[in-house]
Records
---
Amino acid sequence: MSKFFRFFTLFTLVFFVSHTSFAQQEEELFRNESCTSIMFGKKATDDGSVITAHTCDAYYRTWLNFVPAQKFDSDTTHQVYWGTMHTHTPWSQEGMKLKGEIPQAKETYAYLNTAYPCINEKQMAIGETTISGKKELINKNGLFLIEELERIALQRCTTARDAIKLIGELIKEYGYADAGECITIADKKEVWQLEIFGEGPDRIGGVWAAQRIPDEHVGISANISRIGILNLDDKNYFMASDNVFDVAKNMGFWNGKEPFKFWKAYSGEKPFNVREYFVLSTMAPSLNLKFDSDELPFSVKVEKKVNIRDVAKLYKTTYDGTDFEMIRNLKVAKKERNENGVLEVVDTIVSSAAHPWLSTDRRDLLNSLEKDAVVRHRPISVQYCSYSWIAQLRDDLPDEIGGKIWFGLDVPRLSPRVPIYCGNLSLPDSYNYCGHNNFSRQAAMWAFTRTNRLAMVNWGTGKQIVEPEVKKYEDKFFGEVNFIENRAKELAKQDKLNAKNGENTTLCREFLTDYSNASLRSTIDRWWELGDKLWIKMKWKF
């Protein structure tokens, strides 16, 4: 480590230059490692919740809004656009292109419109991760990208199984134009993992398979196809397109003789990496899963039921204290004065200037000083996360209360999760603006991005300021949620009584909306304050 002592002064001078250049530095990384979805069946959680989740790990839009339920005439069409994930506001259409249209449903459900649309008013939620697959499968002549399939499913379906069937029908009729994608679809009863690829250059359709996460299990999709052997006779756990075997044969991906594995035919990559290994081994330690195995189980039975805070903790993961921790070699001398007042080395510790989200340029710099000083293992919590959420779906509550997402902007470890209910009516105005193209106090995103990046200037100082605030706010929200929901249940009963008396009211939904919006605003205000504090703290540490 002696070379680090000689060069660390140089390192600290250039370590934090150009925080806003992550998009250019990590462009290749984003294409290959965007998003993590973790799922829990209802018997794997301590309150019977079904859980799916999503980290939007790339520079997609951060504005979000609620789209209301609608009714349409029988001859109405639904227009299909590409480019919906990079607009600046809900009413702007820069970069969007109309690709076609399909018949509209007579009625649609309200849904929360994030870059990848995520939850509807009937407690159906959809997470997403890009799994790429073999490039030969992509056919850009198809109509649908994955985000539009999610939107239509949320508008028209109430169960995961119906959503899978609808998506399969749409792909077959109109074509799939995206790279390989996994969407994790959950309802109040169960959660499924659906993996989709194109059908190749000769057909605009698609090929797909879906596997259900058993009720007592946890599953994870993290940018790698994971569905293996398909037991299509077991309709309670498997579904697939009718061409799932033929396409693999015709494309030369499967010889028709060896056992068919979906991931092997259509992806070809080893079906797990560090994120899958970490989550599955953490939830089932007695299995003694090995990182050097050829394959891991598709899902594992949890050895201890989880609550929503346990899931939130998984999403903060940067592998601190493990062999996968990126900065564990970046150690400097810790000095203290002895009894004679002379400074002497008493220990070596990880530098306070090192943080778990080092960019490619900074890793290259350090590795040029000493080979493999920093070995990157892709964490679950990354610095290029636009937003993330954890959906909690419960069949013992009215839909407007039972379904909610725990939402956060920017780095999952550094921003508190705030509950947004699927019965909410609106969001604060600052959630109407994406801030990726310019700094603006109008955009909620920048309250968190500015503060969280400043905390990384000197992580030893920054984490002592930001992480206690994350805990403080999450303690508040998780601690008061039962009171809030009990009050909402009382108001839901009042709404039903009012309806019987001929008066339609939305007391429950208004209450939940007010609560969520007040919580969102309070976190935004506090993170602006923390950012101001960190500017002062960090002014000599750049």
---
Amino acid sequence: MASILNKIAFKNFFNYYGDYEENTYDLEEGVNIIVADNGAGKSKFFNAFLWLFYDQILDSDTKQRVNVRNSGVKILSDKAKNETVINDRVECGVMLEYTRGTRYKYQIIKSFSATKINDSISDERSWQFLINDVEVNKTELVLHKYKPVYDESEKRQIIDHLIMPAFRKYSFLQGEEVDDIIDFGKRESIEEAVENLTDIKKYEKIHDLLSEFKEKAFKDLQKQLKANNAENERFDEAVKEKENIEEQLDHENQKLKEWQATYDTAEEEKNELDKQYASAEKRKELDDKLKPIRKKLREKKEEFETFLDRINNRFFDGNFAWIAMGFEDEVQKYRNLKEQFVERRYEKRALQNVEENPNEYFHFLPENSPDSVSLQNMIDDEHCYVCNREAKKGTAEHNNIVKLKNRPKDKQTEKPFVKNDLNNFFGDLQINAQPFYNKFDSIRDSVIKTKEKEVELKESIDKLKKQIKSIEDDRNSIMIAGYDAELSAKEIISNYNGAIRRREKANGKINDIIIPKINTFKKQIKAIEQEIKDLNKSNNIPTGYNQNYEVLNDLEEASQKAKDRVFDAMIQLLEKHANIHFKNLIKNNDLTGGILKFEKNPNGSINFNYIDSNGNTVHGSSEGFQRMKKFSVVMAIISANNSVYNYPLLADAPISAFGEGFTEGFFEAISDVFPQSIVLVKELYKREDEMKINELGKRLLKDGKVKTMYVNHVPENAEQIELVTSQTKLK
């Protein structure tokens, strides 16, 4: 009878603010998907089941499971706490309904109440918490009226029937926990899985009992032999020889344990490093790509800094003359001012000359005005072009022009005629400014080209940064938390190979030296025991002692072989089912060929490898690929069971390391194994989309195997005390 969750509801549970009716998810047999971005309630949803099964929650701050009794202030909705006045009480709880079989339906409510005694909403001392007794109700499906269950053992049984404790580790998964479900480096981890699927525990008990009985039977036989062969030297020698060999056998068994411990340690280290080694070569490849790009980025940054330093120079460099930009009209203004200045200057100079030599300069224009060439033309033409009249040779007018042409130059030191003569200043200004106003036509093009160069450099830097970010993201996607900061890819490969060498050395010691010795000693002991029995044939020993020992010896060997046979058969069955599921999981990816291979180690642990068609181990796979291998084994443990699996899959972010192909394969495969799946994911979320799901989410929405799909929402930019999770049911 499969257990199927019909409904889960929350009341003021974390950011599920409000009563149960406002925070209800109706679920169905088959695949149920809840899509939520970070902070939108995935882990909080999962915490409801932790509370249900273990009275715990996962503390998002410490990433540790903590008891609900010590975490009430964190569990209770901040909005509900903020709205509660002092001395008032607020309730927090989760409610689940599930059916089992075709007759009964169960309702389970776990809750607590909190009374506010101080203003601080986040201080544990501001609240008094009361954990309510778990409330369990049941009803027959045809009646739809719940009746309370009062017996505590029945309550526990009803909770356990949702997912039995022995199967929770395969059916109740959170993120990376799938990586730790099966530790193939530890025999007990494999045995636990096999124990849940077979009666191997009974074989072990039988074997242990028969070993004990066999030892006791031999001691009884030995006493009889000694009593009846007191004078038989060979018998005494045989017994001593047997004891000596048994002592050596114990010594070898002790060495076996030590080397098995060495093997286990190396195997554990290898398995731990395998998470990194599987990606170490890829990381190294990415690191090699990063080096030249980072160097190029440094060079571009240096070029950009130099470029920025030179921009200021372009304002004053005559080759660029940027400072003149926008001063085109100033040239004409300067000319006008210069003309006014020259005119006024000539006036002041002329006045000074007249004042100093009134008789000489009274009849004459200022020096050099008109110029000598013009005056000579007027003398030659006998015409004054100043007053536009004739000046015939010999006339007073003509003589006046000649006199003006021959006027004396002032040989005296020129006296200043203005307080500040700026003639040279304006001249120098014009000369110095000439390279700048000659560049007026090219300044804008120069600025535009410089801006284009700046944009080009920035784009180059941004492009390089994006390349680095992309490669680093790829690199980070194959990191294993806690190791990247400590170990480089080269160190990982070195340590990994070192662990393999130590493991192989231990394996060689065990298989090539110790186990052959142990087998030899066992054969020798068996031969001596046979010799002792032969020596005893002539003695008067009750036949029951010999028969008892022989029968128990045969039974002990048979039980050991039966136990090993059951274990080996189950491992082969797990391998078969794991490969079936693995192929289904990866069918939407580009991976080709290869199978999962389980190989039994001397200590009983399992090597779990992915090999190609030539039997070579495949390395360098992504974290998602590694997790997919583990998940295929989890599914194999379930499907290898002879009976139908009767419990739902509850999974929080199990596909966080998957690509789109793996994700699609995951949802297709789980429906073939679990009667119901409730999967919380963010990978299908797309903020910009109207439905808030990406294209893969929309494909899954149309998939007949997907029975319900919800999208969680939280208000944008909401403060913690206003954080509320709502949901939209898409299907």
---
Amino acid sequence: MPAIDPTEYEIAELGPKITDVDDADELHEMLELEEAGEDRAPVKTLIEDRIEKVEAEDDGELDPETVDLTEMTVADIANMVRGVDDADVLRDVLEREREGKERKSAIAQIENRIDSVEGSEEQAGEDVEYVPPEEKYPELDHPTNDKRWVEGTVGAEYRDMWVYCETQAGELVDVSKEMLGKARDLMDQYNADYDAEERVVAVLVGADASDHVEDATAYGADLVVYMEDDRLERFRHTPYTEIVTDMSRAGGELASEGHADVDWKDYHEPRYTIFPATNNGRDLSALVQGALDSGLASDCSGLYIEEAMISNPAKVGNAGDNKEFERVLHMKRPDFSGFEYSTILCIDKPNRDFHPQGASVIPGSFEIPDPDYDREAAVVEYEMDLEEEWFEVEVTEFDRLSGGVDLTGNDVVVAVGRGIGDDPTTGIELALDLVDAFEDADLGLSRGVITSSYAFDSHVEQYVTEARQIGESGQVVEPDIYIAAGISGAIQHKVGCDEADTIIAVNTDPEADIRDFSDYVIEGDLFEVLPRLTEAVEKGELAAAVEASDD
């Protein structure tokens, strides 16, 4: 039995894990498990690609001077040239690629490696001159000039992984539990790799923050730092940002008055921080990371820590040089195409430290661990003065919705995407007609509809809300039947519907990615197909309607 059972993972989770498997036999066993289980084509492709790579490595290291580039993927070429330090060999590889398949992306990878190895002719061997921004651009206003820590965090000490734990309605939300479990795994491995003793630090802020200390400990925290005040019952940008920022600086060079010497923290700022990619978490993560003068990788679905070899002169200080950065948090997120993942790194510069390395995590990206209520953690009740001006706006009355749009319990979900673009209002109407034809169904939307500038008539506008979004940043549904009309099938959307028993896709594009994970594909215009499906459901003939036919 292999260590990883692919049937227990979504493809977004499986991708980062499978890269650590170097045993071809184990990979073949994983493939057999998937084929005997859910038999998902994208997952099988992922495993098969890994098998091909591992078996190629077992056959011996590729020789860039003799390898047949036409038999290699762009990713294979990128991995190969990454280890080549001879510019002449790289130029030969470049010439062979141009004479062969002439793939632009492969050529770009080779050219980038050549630049990394030797730098440009003008810059090779020259130090990159550092000029402070206020001197380089004296005509510009520089509001950060008053922040002494902008140039003051060079070679400072950073430790621990901090997890902001969000609560709602008196409960620790699931994504907080996911992040604590992931942080626990990461830091356990980190401590083993670097012979270190760094901690998972849970951060709680709210009117009932102390109520969640036990849960935060049970899900993986070594230290819980909480701030409790009745005025913090509702999330507010300014006080929450000020509190988390102040906690992060306690015990360091920039600690506020009364927090310079604390017995639970003796370093400058956290090494890593992670936040939930919820509405409030997205706001807070950007504000805190900005206040700490670092960066943020938002909406991530994968995290791991390892070294990174960097050749960018802005990062290494000298054109043509390579430098290995240690303890780098690799933050994976869907790229703007929606079909691939990008890995974001937060790398220091010669005259500038960028810490904490920060990310916000999409809910559902990681498994919720089993809580261990026998675990123990240090607990700190944080105290600081909260300025009255932070609470100038007072909420005097509010209503809590008894329920939102919960699509998770429906037998059928009818979802529409950008395919409604020719006539958005009619597209929503046709989808609602199909919803009404089923006994237990509701309407879902792809992110493309939510973020579009479509103009909807008022009678359907109420249905076009973010609450109906399906995907990584929306709801995850598992209905008996999922009908996707006019949806291309980006990775983010796939994660939201892949567990449906039966997926029926309606699309005019014969190459749409959604075909790869659908049980039935109806190639046609949704404006023509949806009315026919509605009629078929009303007659009890849906199964017959989706079977292959000439019309």
